[in-house]
Amino acid sequence: MAYLKSTGFITKMIYLFNMDVREKGHRWERAVVKLLKNMGFNKAVTSRANNKILDACKVDIDRVPFYIQCKNGYPKGINYSKLIKEMADAIREEYGKLQYPIIVMHKKGRDYEDNLVIMPFKDFMNLLNQIPYDIQGDTPPEPKRTKAIGTQS
Questions:
Q1: d(C-alpha 137, C-alpha 146), whole Å
Q2: Minimal CA–CA distance to 88: which of 76, 104, 64?
Q3: Which of 19, 28, 44, 106 has its CA 20 to 30 A from that of 73?
């Protein structure tokens, strides 16, 4: 073990592992951008490439009407409430207020059914209030069909 430490082998392996995890996250961000563009949000981009201030606020997707944080993996779980609060605090510090709802898009597995979208309840209710839907018996409008993230082509 001492030999491995002295040659830097362990440090290199940790670096390569972290690069793979980081790249996995970046791939998920790009997949979310692609999904959003397919849904009509044509200006969607990763904040890494476009807005370093938003990137520092943990916002991964820019030029959409949401603050989106993308997560890929994390088998032991994430404290979503803490993450959303940290994002909200950082955004308020930089911009003075929250202009959009915060959403965490978490890719949990290979199948798109495993993926999660997490947002504060208040923001969810605001989104629901924007949907044109008559509770007197009309059916909701048909959703726009798009290829789901994580499915095979």
A1: 27
A2: 104
A3: 44
